[in-house]
Amino acid sequence: MRKIALMCAGAMTVLALGSVAQAKTFKWSSASDIPTLDIHSQNNALGNGVHAAIYEALVYYNSKTFKPEAQLATSWTNISPTQVRFTLRSGVKFSDGSPLTADDVVFSITRSMSKTSNYAVFAQGIDKVVKVDANTVDILLKAPTPTLINQLTELRIMSKAWAEKNKSVEPKDIKTPEETFAHRNAMGTGPYMVKDWQPDQRLVLVSNPNYWGKNPSNVTEIVYTPIKSAPTRLAALLSGETDFVLDPGPQDLGRLRADPAMKVMDGAENRTIFLGMDQFRDELPGSSVKGKNPLKDVRVRKALYQAIDINAIQRVTMRGLGQATGTLISPQVNGWTKKADARWPYDVAAAQKLLADAGYPQGFEVDFACPNNRYINDEAVCQAITAMWARAGIKAKLRTLPLVTYFPMIQRYEASIYMLGWGVPTFDALYSLQSLVRSVGAGGDGNYNVGRYSNPQMDALIERTKVETDLKNRNELIEKALILSHEDVAYLPLYNQVIPWAMKKNIEVVHRADNRLDWRLIKVN
Q1: CATH no. for 27-222
Q2: Can you point out the beta strands (E) in 208-298?
Q3: Measured distance CA(465)–CA(478) in Å, rounded
């Protein structure tokens, strides 16, 4: 018996060692940290991508087709044009072992619509969520909502009991320094759970032992290290300190492509980079113009636009990692048209004349804010634009901030001119139009319109787009709205990002147009 016991113990040891041998750690990096673990607090692409490892939604995109597919819901049915019924997956548990119920779904989607949430844009069109039974919920709509299923991919589900126990019923208000438990802690149904988060230093995720599905990835631990400096990120990758870099410096790509131990994957991102302008205040803080706001004048906005040499930025600053654009959406997004993508031409003389016509022949001073660790070469692009504007007479006082302080700052309306990059998780132009050019209001309207542009004609087009179900009619409305934005110079569109991912040769990932990793499809060989 003792011999059999020893044999069994030996077999168990071999199995355990084999299991350990299969366990892999995936170490990755990019320039900035996530702003929060609260899934309804700050609508930030990097954070959303990380949240998707921990929390899940009713539906989620297939990373190869980008068609929504079942996740926490197994099916959905249109009971009527304004009522959609979802059947929840049975046997799903949160990472603490408690079961997922309809109450959690009702609570979470309702939470996304609260005053302190940055996710109301994804709940656009939803009137309320109703529990039918323990495994069924109905989403009741204010009107037919053609993008509902796509919107739901970003509305992840939180445990109601956990939120209530930890005083996190309301999302953290990202505009204030106050924290809730859900800001630094998380508990979801996803394949991974949080082991440790030290903001701006390190985030560690480990496998969720109560995960309902079979995670095809062989990664049991994910370690994220934010590294602001591109040379330092490169050094970490080359030394083996990290396996993967989400945003390698453009200047390093040639070296990485030539290294047999490395590989680079490229793809166009559905993210457009542009500049916004304060078109609301009567006087701009820190400007040399007193008693009025020059950015309210379309001639001034157009002068700023035409003073930017986008081809030089694309060629020199971005090193080809940007496709010049004249609109607020990229070609992957439904509603994009070549007609709407036309740019005002680069013309310094025309810019100077526009400024003179507007009453500023000598130009003026203005505040200009940019992030320094969010987009590819963001700070360098803003420095180049500052120099270009100077040739036309605009003296931009550039200030750059890290992501975690930059976004709350612009959402408090504290920037006169600012840089923003806008990805489109729904792959539909309404998401951009509603967030960026709709007058600021409730339900996600104008939630990132921090320049407070407002045009009743634009608002009417967007309201019609929200409920139009005929695709041809809907896309005509979108094109009209995009052209109106161009004529009003509501923003200064710059380029659509092209995203290279750099990694060690033994890493397998699927490149996504939304610049996020699918944690289920990562392999470390």
Answers
A1: 3.40.190.10
A2: 219-226, 244-245, 262-277
A3: 7
Residue length, the chain? 525
Q: Categorize the per-residue pLDDT at 14 as very low, low, confident or very high, splitting at 50, 70 and 90.
A: very low
How far, CA to CA in Å, does 439 sit from each of 141, 318, 450, 471, 488? 22, 32, 10, 24, 14
What is the Cα–Cα distance from 52 to 43, expressed in whole angstroms? 13
Whole-model pTM?
A: 0.84
Residue 490 to residue 453: CA distance in whole angstroms:
6
Q: Are 323 and 417 in contact (CB under 8 A)?
A: no
Tell me which amino acid residue 135 is: N
pLDDT for residue 15 is more than 80: no
pLDDT tens string 413-456: 999 999 999 999 999 999 999 999 999 998 889 999 999 999 99
Q: Quick one: average pLDDT of 237-257?
A: 95
Choose the weakest-confidence range: 16-20, 88-92, 306-310, 500-504.
16-20
> What kind and span of H or E run contains 502?
strand 492-504
Angle, helix 348-357 to helix 378-392, in steps of 10 degrees: 60
CATH of 269-499 among 3.10.105.10, 3.90.330.10, 1.10.10.10, 3.90.1210.10: 3.10.105.10
Pair type for strands 364-371 and 394-401: parallel
Q: For the chain, give the mean pLDDT.
A: 93
CA 512 vs CA 464, 500, 505: distances in Å: 31, 11, 19
d(CA 472, CA 453): 27
